[in-house]
Design brief:
3 copies of one chain form a homotrimer. By secondary structure, chain A is mostly beta strands. Chain A has a single domain, classed as Beta Barrel (Porin). Chain A has 2 helices and 20 strands. Chain A has a 16-stranded antiparallel barrel with strand order 1-4-5-6-7-8-9-10-11-14-15-16-17-18-19-20. Chain A has a two-stranded antiparallel ribbon with strand order 2-3. In chain A, strand 14 and strand 15 form a beta hairpin. The longest helix of chain A has 6 residues. The N and C termini of chain A lie close together (about 5 Å). Chains A and C meet through strand 1, strand 4 and strand 20 of A and strand 4, strand 5, strand 6, strand 7 and strand 8 of C.
Chain lengths: ~375, ~375, ~375
Amino acid sequence: GWGQFRYHAFSRGVTTWTDNAGITRPVRNRDAFDIERARLMFSGHFLDRKLGYLVLLDGDTDGGHTVDFFYYYFRWQVCDSFELQLGKRKVPGTRQWLMSSRRTRLVDRPMSLDFFRPNLTVGLFGVGKLGETGHYEAMVGNGYFSSNAPNSSSDNELTFAFTNYFDPWGAFGEQIADIDYSEQPLIRVGHSFVYSPQQGVVDGVPIDEADFIRLSDGTRLTETGALGPGVTINSFNVYLYGVDLAWKYRGWSVDAEVFLRWIQQIEADGPISREQLFQHGFYVEAGKFLIPGVLDINARYSQVSGDFGTGREYGAGMNWYPLKTSRMKISIDAVKLENSPLQNTASDIMVGDTGTLIRSQFQAEF
Amino acid sequence: GWGQFRYHAFSRGVTTWTDNAGITRPVRNRDAFDIERARLMFSGHFLDRKLGYLVLLDGDTDGGHTVDFFYYYFRWQVCDSFELQLGKRKVPGTRQWLMSSRRTRLVDRPMSLDFFRPNLTVGLFGVGKLGETGHYEAMVGNGYFSSNAPNSSSDNELTFAFTNYFDPWGAFGEQIADIDYSEQPLIRVGHSFVYSPQQGVVDGVPIDEADFIRLSDGTRLTETGALGPGVTINSFNVYLYGVDLAWKYRGWSVDAEVFLRWIQQIEADGPISREQLFQHGFYVEAGKFLIPGVLDINARYSQVSGDFGTGREYGAGMNWYPLKTSRMKISIDAVKLENSPLQNTASDIMVGDTGTLIRSQFQAEF
Amino acid sequence: GWGQFRYHAFSRGVTTWTDNAGITRPVRNRDAFDIERARLMFSGHFLDRKLGYLVLLDGDTDGGHTVDFFYYYFRWQVCDSFELQLGKRKVPGTRQWLMSSRRTRLVDRPMSLDFFRPNLTVGLFGVGKLGETGHYEAMVGNGYFSSNAPNSSSDNELTFAFTNYFDPWGAFGEQIADIDYSEQPLIRVGHSFVYSPQQGVVDGVPIDEADFIRLSDGTRLTETGALGPGVTINSFNVYLYGVDLAWKYRGWSVDAEVFLRWIQQIEADGPISREQLFQHGFYVEAGKFLIPGVLDINARYSQVSGDFGTGREYGAGMNWYPLKTSRMKISIDAVKLENSPLQNTASDIMVGDTGTLIRSQFQAEF
């Protein structure tokens, strides 16, 4: 298993934020200890060496320390270059979402990534190799962000996702920071696509699943009034496309990803100001090991843009690996937020945040 | 541990159903991937070979992937023919409820069984042998259907249950389908009894425990208006009796169970149309292995009857055991439902359902 | 792991209780089986012998059998006499709260202890030795009683706690009852201190964390009307001080703890009857082994006093250790309650209780 022990403090630069439906909510100063992503893993083979299972228990402060099955799936190694997975895991869309949160440069993932990325779902997943260093993952599953939703709050539409990368100069490895001090420059280029139709009401029954999409100012799309006074969105289709690039060499490293998201065929119970939305954003991160394998510094800029405003994140931080292994690290970062459209308790970034967030963290694998 | 990965689709034949209190609710088309009954088991002995414990963690899509203790009890092997169990497990009432859901002929249990059967509870359980092939289980526990209810929503009355079977022609085994291709005909005959007094209000405090009982048209008995306009049921006593029979021989097999349920001493806060109810039903199932130990086909009919209507289930399906072991199977079935009085997310049968349900499932033990 | 299987029955001596805001609530008779504190522990070292982790899964009937992470922390053995712990565990305040609930004399902890004690929280903990038999624990953490609260319902103030004891006549051990039949008299003297500022509203956002404090008649301090008609408390500071003493010799044993709690700087949204509160209480327990190591009898008196009334608990019970080890015991007790100000589902004592509580329990470690 593994876990993160964190102390975070947020100092607000504004006292309220107002969403596109005209509702004003307070922005609060915050500070607390929290445990993020405490995980216990059980995995192995059964009946045959080609058949396996994985069960990952998860709990953290944000979820009231309640334990859930975060990942649980069966896997079948169909052939050397293809594995089929049946169960619950991450939707394969966007590069850094598929990277373990243990590998982030700063204490948590970029704001723009968490705004655009999908979540977890139950479905069929294929994971395969293309040539020597190519990798792809494909999925048909319940939803874009259905995660822990029971079937009673999920719609009837399936979600499709695909991601793919190549490492043309040799195997890039799991780390975006160059902890292994690569003697040769390494790059990874990839892209991801997710298509997800969403229904807010199915056969007269209201469905929660569509609640996750937000306008670029942070307003929930399904909130009454989001796109027109007193009007509620019933259904829409989401298309996400992302392109990513990572490079590392002799302790230096850079990675970036661009996101494009189209929300189309928006239907509502009254007149709305637009029937489709286009949202875009990106993050770019860079770092350098000051003491190879032991201490690095990192910086990040991330941005979310769209018709209703722009949110920005400026971050810098450092990681110390006291035992010269990535299995244990101590991190600190500072992030300046402007008009956060993201609500994410894991990264301690809340919707409406303008201000400064400081996070320090101890992380270990056991 | 073990788990079930399923895809189900329900195509409705009606758009609404109206309960006995006159409330009309939508019936929705549904389709989704879901994980059912993912289980992690921890068990062993302590201090003495006669003392043991069992802890079974459970989570699934229906429960939002939250983990709970499904079974957890201490056991004491008092003598060769009797074991005492203290903790939480299944109430010993009805035969197929006590059979693991891994052993069902179709993808899930019969509709009528799930309508009549009890659930899990906390209590004292005795499990013993009678002669060579006789088996009985007896219980005194908190409730008929209290399952995960905290004590604050359980009443003060205890529930009693007893079940018993004999295998007069030799040990029948755990499987109702004849996966082992029995050379001699085998039968199992048994019966079960549960008595459970229920209070909807205790000393002025409303109690949720009694919410599970439904009329034969699916109306919750404790719903206001169920048995009289504006009137709510306060208390009643439940008596359940079931008789079961199973037979298998050379790949062929049949099993059936009849249920009789009396709901008596019904007390309410106003005039009600009847002070006692009698509900009855049954299921009958049969199957044949087309390829011994590898592939079988099965059919089922189940029915729930009572004063307020009759619900029916017609099902057929097949199971493929690709590794010639019951530890892994791939199943598909089709079920035609008429006026389902059952609400059960595990079998994907909802109250009011009239229509067709298709389920496909991968199941494995690891 | 370990667990407790219990049957309890409460026979009320009053039918209602009225709180200080004038609200009258029913007191109900109760009886049920319940599982308390079923625990599964995973612990070990990682990377280095000085680094460890501990994860304790917990579930019980009171929590609907849902599983949570009860304890989970990383630990670093800084030197022989000091260990640092990062994560979630018990706040180190009051002696008997820090003792495992497996070691209680009666079936559960004293009423006054549960009224005054803190709970669990996430924070930084130091555990160290002072001389040969001295022990101390210090903490800075999220809250006094935040336990499973997510950060969204915890305030920005940190809580500080410290506890310390000495065993001047030699190592006292983990047991307060003299199960080891000490040939020499042994004593333990100690004290504890907790300081916790509480905010009911932060930057305009209501916070649940402060809900745990009750007046000595059981009224929640943050309930509207608790200290003045229509007025709600916004913030206050809590100071808890406790002094404890334990003695055991040749099967006899006595232990006691005195609690003093000051609630100061009370601020509200209107006029209140007092701006500070002083609450005090104690428990005293004694026991004797009738059959050394096998059977003991015990008695307890505990009391909570303050400006709004006094609650009392008179208890007596016995423990049987059939295998002559503390790892398994069977217990029974009877407790007379008068005006309980405590709401605690673990000990089956509810706020407002006046009456008699009988508990019997089987407990084992596995």
